[in-house]
């Protein structure tokens, strides 16, 4: 047990005296709320590549108008001639319909490129469209009239929420009209007994969560982009994020959806009932439908009670086998209070250490690290469960070393070692990024095999002659969701050829998913066949054709 | 506090001494599993009417061959001439395909009525079809070949699992071929790390749960019919039951579905991934689709850890307002360990007392009773939380009296006061039964208003001149799910006219559901308009037509 004195000595000291050790931990953490913390600057689940002003991978982020057009990055995409080109007459219709000047950004009859650019390009500065018209309806009825007109006139559209997606789904490719939901931002009702919230699609996630916080509840989704993303977009992309392990997916939480279909009809399925077995559960098609069959305008969602007690522990472990053992024990012993089990390999943690220049939470180096969070209703009980769990994993040498946050500041500090990875990964240049679901027992194998493959090809090295800096892995272990990342000094066709389709084939062989939580959008559309059979793809196309026979909804994407 | 000494005195005694009071409670219940108990003789969520041998409502259940045909009970249903009548040639095809004699019950070329009757009628003895052919495929491929043939030959079919449904969905109306899944009963895999089970649709729920029990896990659905119902049927009907409050619905738990479509194609969506954002979530249409667009052949489902500590408390309360307060407090204080909150009105409890002849759990009479169950990983912690909660609800006079089970026998005994209601309700004769979702704050109003309405109409009374014995309510309060029941001495058109469509209109006005968990089947099909708009019904019909253009799947039902 020489290797792992920290927790154990802490536990003993806690038992023997009331002295709180300066860095070591006692097991009565104060009751604090992680969910009230300010949002991380980048998405916890994001893999951005932000080209610099020269289109390279270093330096300051490029201004929007220098971003490469998606139509150039994806030359195989061609504008579909069936779509009408927008005219001043069309603009006039929308201006008359929406009234307020702030609801129509018109780049057709005048130059509005400066105003429009933010709607044409995404926050990663990776995608850029050519739209000349942005509409901001204020009501479901306005959305309905817009879509009816677009459908009748063969005008293509892109629904847009907070525009924080990662696969290019929320910006146009060509001249599709952007329908931005930001003006539909009202919370309509909240029932404190049942915990059911009804709100507009354009409500910002953080606003919804803050509102619920005031009522002792929590939105069952959390992610780094919460300050910008909208709950309608979250539902449309079936966002996963940090609370899924505990509260499950939107397919279970969302009780009702109001959506406008391409022909303008309103699917009024805004049930506020936990149970309602009266026909096909059509709203489910819109959860993760990425705006390709309609626009979500309102949602009804069941929200859990906010946990007054939150604990965070951070471990070092000697192998992926140990990580799996720790996960199994955490599920068993922490059971109903386990709210996150995040995996970070040693390379990601050294990267954060190097880029941010702050000392590692644990002494020495470990090949793997885990962050465990518990959320419960009773701080004493949770502390005791965690103590017992920590004793077990230390005494059985499952975990080599660990630290337990003692207050909210430490909780936030430990989370930065998970949430800071994304930001730090871009530090050396660009990053090739994959968001994958893989059966847990094989999850980290992909990182090792990718590293071996690129190393054998002579692509990985410490100096500029090698394009690849490293191959790292982290992710939502509790959900079987790996983020495989390959930080590079420059984007390089040889690297790309070594990675694809090899990575997708590797995932396919294990019946994994090539997009665990990010969705399909533009980037994954060509690869869906690695995760879905021909029959499934045919059935999905049937649904698309059924709801959107003219194909005006978010074209060039998804399916 | 004079009214409510039981819990409080118990708590004080526990604190002051180690004497365990004979009937009162100590708060260190032994760790026991309710889920291992033998299944209740009837469904906890069922409302059967079992006509006696004379077609009346008293006496021994009628033999199957005396049950009234559904086609007679619902004369508005007419056999659709588009369906081919089954011939010996068809039977020959199925015999050649399925080989084994036990896989085809042939009532076409010979008299097999005795063997067939069990498949033609339901366990409530309320529905009875005219089929002359039952098929029992052993594999997905056989199901595929059967459906392809039926589709090409316009032969109508009824998928059948354990045949424990409550709305006539699993038996034929006319001569539809029964496709029974009982031979597809294998468990294919279980991953102890992720908790993901893959199994055939025909696995009996109790077998699945027992298998999982051996692995320290639990099936996320429990209901009284568990000894007969099949998991494929559970998913096809989106069964709710007793664990929904804690583990959520199948829309969140079911990760994958393999289903055969009417044209014989196999929808291979048997994902074992918690997260998989690669296209429309089509399997959701089959969850609660009641076998009208395909036959579920396998499911993949995420199963939680089995809770080693289970507690059950039983309360008496003075008003529905008090019940709501108790529910609010239970959600807040018991939070992550609350696994059931069941409501029973005083009338149901007196009925169980009278019919079963056993003493009430509490002294005196209360207008309302609740049963609360907790399930957690630590008996001491759960006991403490419950103790604190009980102190609170007693001291604040939210609860008038209560009892806490001290061991597994007492847990089962208290559950009989909830689960025994269904059985006892039929004691005086027939029962008119409704399974409704209603916003919680208005949930019990319907019972009072129905009672007033029938009383004002002179239909309720203590003697034989009145058809109605009583109007009672109970249900899954935690899910907003009320079972409104009207026990009667005889079925009576005047009573029916007083009830319908009034009950449905009442529910519609509150945006409730006319079928919370039982589904549509034959009985609710005409009433779906009370819970779904015209647009929704049109969209649902689109889906039906898309998947089953010939309409061969489970006709005369659902939509």
Ordered list of secondary-structure elements with their pairings:
The structure is a homodimer.
Chain A (H helix, E strand, L loop, with lengths): L4 H12 L53 H4 L14 H11 L5 E3 L6 H8 L12 E3 L4 H13 L4 E4 L16 E4 L6 E5 L4 E5 L4 H9 L17 H6 L7 H4 L2 H4 E7 L5 E4 L13 H4 L8 E8 L6 E9 L2 H15 L3 E8 H11 L11 E9 L2 H17 L5 E4 L3 H12 L1 H5 L4 E8 L7 H12 L15 E5 L4 E8 L4 H7 L2 H8 L24 H14 L12
Parallel strand pairs in A: 2-4, 3-4
Antiparallel strand pairs in A: 1-2, 5-6, 6-9, 7-8, 7-9, 10-12, 10-13, 11-12, 11-15, 14-16, 15-16
Helix pairs in contact in A: 1-13, 11-13
Please provide a brief summary of the model.
Chains A, B: It comes from Ophiobolus disseminans. Chain A has helices at residues 5-16, 70-73, 88-98, 113-120, 140-152, 205-213, 231-236, 244-247, 250-253, 283-286, 320-334, 346-356, 379-395, 408-419, 421-425, 445-456, 493-499, 502-509, 534-547, and strands spanning 104-106, 133-135, 157-160, 177-180, 187-191, 196-200, 254-260, 266-269, 295-302, 309-317, 338-345, 368-376, 401-404, 430-437, 472-476, 481-488.
């Amino acid at each position: 047990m020489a290797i792992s004195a920290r927790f154990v000595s802490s536990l003993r000291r806690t038992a023997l005296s009331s002295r709180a050790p300066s860095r070591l931990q006692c097991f009565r953490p104060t009751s604090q709320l992680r969910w009230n913390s300010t949002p991380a600057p980048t998405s916890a689940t994001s893999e951005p590549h932000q080209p610099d002003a020269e289109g390279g991978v270093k330096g300051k982020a490029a201004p929007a108008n220098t971003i490469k057009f998606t139509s150039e990055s994806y030359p195989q995409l061609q504008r579909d001639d069936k779509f009408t080109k927008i005219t001043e007459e069309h603009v006039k219709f929308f201006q008359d319909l929406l009234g307020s000047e702030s609801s129509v950004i018109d780049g057709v009859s005048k130059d509005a490129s400066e105003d429009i650019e933010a709607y044409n390009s995404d926050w990663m500065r990776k995608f850029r469209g050519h739209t000349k018209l942005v509409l901001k309806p204020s009501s479901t009825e306005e959305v309905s009239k817009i879509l009816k007109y677009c459908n009748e006139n063969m005008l293509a559209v892109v629904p847009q929420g907070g525009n924080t997606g990662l696969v290019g789904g929320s910006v146009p490719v060509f001249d599709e009209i952007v329908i931005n939901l930001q003006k539909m931002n009202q919370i309509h009702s909240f029932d404190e007994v049942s915990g059911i919230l009804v709100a507009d699609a354009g409500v910002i996630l953080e606003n919804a969560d803050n509102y619920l916080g005031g009522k002792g509840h929590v939105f069952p989704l959390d992610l780094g982009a919460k300050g910008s993303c909208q709950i309608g977009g979250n539902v449309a992309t079936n966002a996963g994020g940090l609370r899924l392990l505990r509260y499950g997916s939107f397919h279970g939480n969302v009780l009702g959806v109001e959506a406008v279909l391409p022909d303008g009809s309103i699917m009024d399925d805004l049930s506020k009932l936990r149970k309602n077995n009266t026909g096909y559960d059509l709203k489910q098609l819109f959860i993760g439908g990425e705006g390709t069959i309609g626009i979500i305008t309102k949602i009804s969602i069941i929200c859990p009670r906010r946990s007054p007690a939150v604990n965070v522990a951070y471990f070092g472990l000697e192998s992926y086998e140990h990580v799996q053992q720790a996960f199994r024990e955490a599920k068993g012993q922490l059971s109903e209070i386990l709210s996150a089990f995040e995996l970070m390999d040693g390379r990601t943690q050294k990267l954060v250490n190097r880029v941010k220049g702050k000392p590692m939470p644990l002494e020495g180096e470990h090949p793997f690290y885990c962050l465990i969070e518990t959320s419960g209703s009773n701080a004493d009980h949770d502390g005791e469960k965690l103590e017992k769990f920590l004793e077990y994993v230390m005494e059985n040498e499952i975990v080599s070393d660990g630290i337990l946050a003692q207050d909210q500041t430490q909780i936030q500090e430990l989370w930065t070692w998970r949430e800071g990875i994304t930001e730090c990964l871009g530090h050396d240049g660009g990053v090739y990024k994959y968001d994958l679901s893989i059966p847990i027992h094989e999850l980290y194998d992909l990182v090792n095999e990718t590293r071996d493959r690129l190393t054998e090809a002579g692509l990985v090295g410490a100096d500029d002659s090698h394009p690849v800096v490293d191959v790292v892995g982290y992710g939502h272990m509790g959900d079987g969701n790996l983020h495989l990342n390959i930080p590079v000094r420059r984007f390089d066709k040889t690297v790309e050829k070594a990675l694809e389709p090899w990575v997708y084939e590797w995932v396919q062989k294990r019946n994994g998913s090539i997009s665990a939580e990010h969705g399909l959008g533009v980037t994954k559309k060509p690869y869906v066949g690695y995760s879905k059979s021909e029959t499934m793809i045919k059935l999905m196309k049937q649904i698309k054709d059924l709801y959107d026979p003219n194909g005006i909804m978010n074209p060039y994407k998804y399916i």
